[in-house]
Amino acid sequence: MSVAFRREGDDEHKEPEFELPIPVGPNLVTNAGLKAIRAMVRKLEAEIAAQSDADAVKRLKRDLRYWNTQAATAEIAPEPAEDEVGIGSRVTVRVNGKKRRFTIVGHDEADPAKHKLAFTAPLARAVMGAAAGDFVAFADEEDAVEVVGVE
Questions:
Q1: pLDDT at position 5, please?
Q2: Interacting residues of 45 by C-beta distance below 8 A, sequence separation 6+
Q3: Which of 137, 139, 149 is nearest to 100 (CA)?
Q4: CB-based contacts of 101, cutoff 8 Å, min separation 6
Q5: How far apart are CA 108 and CA 131, in angstroms?
Q6: DSSP string of the chain?
Q7: φ/ψ bin of 35: left (φ > 0), alpha (ψ from -120 to 50), beta (otherwise)
Q8: Structural domains in the chain?
Q9: 124 or 14: whose pLDDT is higher?
């Protein structure tokens, strides 16, 4: 007998839906990051309340579980020492002769296109704790990155 005659429905052939992955380690955020997380929770709750499609509600609830977890585990990152790179710092560096400027933020705020790097990104990790004028190792090269400025 053909498989088509034995199936109860199409659901058995769908790809399984998994939870959104939670980044490993502490959920350090900036004040703006915490506000954005809370805003996302409110937005998703409103979308769920307004949605009538069961599949859409299921996807929205999965997203809401992720954002509720992020809201519950968020820790405001401690302020770095003055002139020292830390979470929330806007950093100017020179790498291979080119200047780059970025802000170090939490996972959910990260957006490299907007020059926001997660504190776990390799370049962000390399400069954390450094001060203007310091040279730090990066990509297995000693003194590969010069910290030009910290705000």
A1: 55
A2: 64
A3: 149
A4: 90, 91, 92, 93, 115
A5: 25
A6: --HHHH-S-SGGGSPPP-PPPPPSS-EEE-HHHHHHHHHHHHHHHHHHHH---HHHHHHHHHHHHHHHHHHHHEEEPPPPPTTB--TT-EEEEEETTEEEEEEEE-GGG-BGGGTEEETTSHHHHHHTT-BTT-EEEETTEEEEEEEEEE-
A7: alpha
A8: 17-76 (1.10.287), 90-150 (3.10.50.30)
A9: 124
* C-alpha dist (Å) from residue 112 to 48, 79, 109, 118, 124: 30, 22, 10, 9, 11
- Name the pTM for this structure: 0.83
Q: What is the pLDDT of residues 56-79, one digit of tens each?
A: 999 999 999 999 999 999 999 998
| Residues forming beta bridges with residue 78, ordered by sequence position | none
